[in-house]
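Below is a filled-in request sheet from our internal design queue. Each sheet records the structural input a requester submitted and the sequence that came back. We keep these sheets so that new team members can see what a complete request looks like end to end.

REQUESTER: design group, bay 2
PRIORITY: normal
MODE: inverse folding
CHAIN LENGTH: 495
BACKBONE (tokenized):
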């Protein structure tokens, strides 16, 4: 078997010997490859998803900045992407898409429940998001987390060329760096966390804290969205592991480890270009006239997640309507909720809660033909999304905690005429960069309601000054800048 990982004093090998039900044929779950990839990306999901077409099933590139930023880099050299295809059971055989080799890793139904829905999304997700829901520390979820991480590490070890680069992404795979280092000490290893890294006193709750910290320290470069996240990590690793040295020369087990902030971004140019097409302008006009030409449009676009503060935002809007400071004749709120993690209990409860609230507000304040909230529970294709951004006078981004929040950056990218107002939660990574937005504490409903009102009233010249400054920032710091900064830190021969 592979190298053991410490799990609070035990090793996984011992766990597996003690429990015959875990006797899985691991090699059947890892795609078989030869060591030929100069760069390997490892993330929970593959960069593609399956779609039904008239000629049968096909793979389609998934939306998102990560895939667009990395694709050109990967296409220039032998490379592969390791991830889960999204279904329980056997993995599809490896395949090429867009000149990148996709290496699907299998997850059993139990692993989907325990590794993905359990440890990743009911333990780590709430803990890393300021415990806005209570994290569940279930001992039976830990072993599957270790087991699946080892599978991803083995797949990367099989795929990477001698001296190659492996870049591991996100909270699902925090043990992969140290496991992979044991298997392949010749590789350059990077890790990037897309979600917040929590404050010390919260992380300290985690029963497996040492294993997670040691897992991450297997990387040569450990990247976070914000400098606060990086600082929290350094503080904790100094306390719970043998990490030592000055902040700019950290040492762990005889290696130099770089720990820093690399704020992720979007393909700014792509959003800007899409926003300026004639088709988008027409579509945005259509949306505006359907919502009522004279009405101001407020927009929210979020994954349906309890971290996003959707309910608080609706309450603030309800307050404005109740107090008469806004009326459905004057404004319409469009709230898009993209379905997410629908089998997880907290997400089911959130959906009912939001839908009840939307019904309540529409019932109380709606007039025939004048609905206060237009609620869409689906994901939208990018051209419809961009047209909605163009139609919106005010964009509400009010998470209780968010690693970055790319919706805020997408909205800004589409405002090529420097109109529109972004209301942005102070608890997002984006707020550290988008300082000319109207920053708000989303927990403070009164202030949030006041801020929405100020956004609706913001004079055109102020909109223009603020938006121009926001746009300057995201044009310079786009997702290509992010990927280059990280990869150059990992290996300056790459560019
Ligand atoms: O932001 C973290 C993240 O895991 C993203 O990588 C992903 O796009 C999103 O949340 C949705 O997550 P899931 O893979 O659970 O659907």
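RETURNED SEQUENCE:
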């Amino acid at each position: 078997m592979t190298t053991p990982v410490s799990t609070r004093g035990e090793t996984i090998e011992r766990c597996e010997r003690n429990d015959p039900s875990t006797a899985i044929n691991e090699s059947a779950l890892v795609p078989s490859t030869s060591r030929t990839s100069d760069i390997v990306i490892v993330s929970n999901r593959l960069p593609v998803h399956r779609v039904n077409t008239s000629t049968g099933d096909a793979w389609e590139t998934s939306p998102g900045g990560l895939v667009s930023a990395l694709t050109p880099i990967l296409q220039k050299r032998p490379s592969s992407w390791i991830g889960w295809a999204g279904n329980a059971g056997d993995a599809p055989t490896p395949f090429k898409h867009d000149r990148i080799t996709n290496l699907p890793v299998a997850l059993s139904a139990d692993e989907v429940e325990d590794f993905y829905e359990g440890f990743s999304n009911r333990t780590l997700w709430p803990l890393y998001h300021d415990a806005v829901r209570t994290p569940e520390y279930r001992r039976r979820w830990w072993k599957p987390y270790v087991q699946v991480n080892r599978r991803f590490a083995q797949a990367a070890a099989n795929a990477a060329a001698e001296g190659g680069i492996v870049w591991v992404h996100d909270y699902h795979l925090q043990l992969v760096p140290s496991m992979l280092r044991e298997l392949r000490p010749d590789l350059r290893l990077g890790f990037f966390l897309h979600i917040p890294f929590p404050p010390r006193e919260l992380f300290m709750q985690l029963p497996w804290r040492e294993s997670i910290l040691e897992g991450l320290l297997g990387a040569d470069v450990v990247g976070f969205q914000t400098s606060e996240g990086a600082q929290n990590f350094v503080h904790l690793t100094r306390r719970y592991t043998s990490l030592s040295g000055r902040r700019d020369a950290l040492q762990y087990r005889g290696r130099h480890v770089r720990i820093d902030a690399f704020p992720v971004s979007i393909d700014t140019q792509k959003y800007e270009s899409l926003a300026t097409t004639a088709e988008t302008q027409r579509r945005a006009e259509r949306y505006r006239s359907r919502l009522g030409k004279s009405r101001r449009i407020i927009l929210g676009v979020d994954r349906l997640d309890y971290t996003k503060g959707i309910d608080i935002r609706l309450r603030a809007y309800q307050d404005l309507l109740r107090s008469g400071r806004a009326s459905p004749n004057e404004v319409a709120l469009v709230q898009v909720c993209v379905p997410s993690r629908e089998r997880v209990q907290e997400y089911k409860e959130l959906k009912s809660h939001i839908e009840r609230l939307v019904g309540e507000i529409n019932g109380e304040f709606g007039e025939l033909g004048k609905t206060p909230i237009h609620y869409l529970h689906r994901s939208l294709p990018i051209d419809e999304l961009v047209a909605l951004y163009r139609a919106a006078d005010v964009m509400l981004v009010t998470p209780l905690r968010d690693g970055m929040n790319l919706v805020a950056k997408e909205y800004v990218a589409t405002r090529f005429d420097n109109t529109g107002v972004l209301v942005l939660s102070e608890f997002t990574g984006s707020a550290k960069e988008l300082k000319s937005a109207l920053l708000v504490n989303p927990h403070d409903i009164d202030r949030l309601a006041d801020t929405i009102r100020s956004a609706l009233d913001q004079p055109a010249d102020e909109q223009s000054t603020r938006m121009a400054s926001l746009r300057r920032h995201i044009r310079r710091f786009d997702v290509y800048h992010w990927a280059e900064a990280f990869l150059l830190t990992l290996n300056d021969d790459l560019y």
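SHEET NOTES:
- Residues 1-23 have pLDDT under 50 and may be disordered.
- The pocket of 6-O-phosphono-beta-D-fructofuranose is lined by residues 44-45, 170, 194-195, 340-341 (CB under 6 Å).
FILED BY: M.R.
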